[in-house]
Amino acid sequence: MAHIALTIAGSDSGGGAGIQADLKAMSALGVYGASVITAVTAQNTQAVTAVHGIPLDVISAQIEAVLTDLDVGAIKIGMLATPEIIQKVAKAIDGYAGPVVLDPVMIAKSGDALLQQDAVLTLREVLLPRATVLTPNLPEAARLLQNETAKTPEQMFRQGQDLVALGAKAVLMKGGHATGEVCHDLLIDTSGVIGDFKALRNGTKNTHGTGCTLSSSIAAGLARGLDLIPAVAQAHGYLQGAIARADELEIGSGHGPVHHFHEVWGA
């Protein structure tokens, strides 16, 4: 029987992030991906030019359709543009007992905003306590905490602890926006740092969809029955391979996508 993961997120017409990246990553890792679309974006490697939220009743109907029929092993939640959508998703998954990976998508790689300012507090109060693991980059973590962006490993750790204190069972503080030759992703729970995932920084500009890909890869691992630490380790290794091969794709003229199927086919 297939392992199943569900992604609840926005659609990226350019195919590099959002629902499209999630389904590619899940498929690459041997997991059947189901999807609930919360918003449609007009987006490519250069910019987001339009965002259209899906009607609330359609969002909840999609979630109900999937959860009442498919044996979902894990849920990944990505782009939720408005407080109303956040509230609707939280209510729709209220009876779901499995692991939830929450990726607090706020800004596209192009710099365009994907989460309204008034939605940040709602996300923090309504969905963050539901997260098995929260996967913010450093600016997202700072915005959730209404704090300055962490610049040191010590600040990353403290902010991760603060997010756990808000209710997340664990937080993966992603160090992609930090400096230094080595990038550190710190996995933190109530006991402290339970994982430090390291990688040499890659100078490629083709990193569109890295956050979506990492969070959906973690969900794929959890759907396959892995515990959190090995699920994050597997996802981290997979993403590093996808980034390393990203330049082979030559997609668009801006921030191109990572190579989700780098282990399957070459460009």
Short description:
The chain is of the alpha/beta class and 267 residues long.
Shape: globular
Class based on secondary structure composition and strand pairing: alpha/beta
The appropriate CATH architecture is: 3-Layer(aba) Sandwich
At the first level of CATH, the class is: Alpha Beta
Major beta sheet, specifics? 6 strands, mixed
- CATH superfamily heading: Ribokinase
Number of strands: 9
Task: Specify the number of helices.
Answer: 8
Distance, first to last CA: 31 Å
Task: Give the SSE order as H and E letters.
Answer: EHEEHEHEHEHHEEEHH
User: What proportion of the residues form beta strands (DSSP E)?
Assistant: 15-25%
Residues in helices, as a percent range = 25-40%
Strand order of the largest sheet: 3-2-1-4-5-6
Write down the overall mean pLDDT: 92
Task: Assign the CATH topology.
Answer: UDP-N-acetylmuramoyl-L-alanine:D-glutamate ligase
Cα Rg: 17 Å
Low-confidence stretches: none
- What is the domain total for the residues? 1
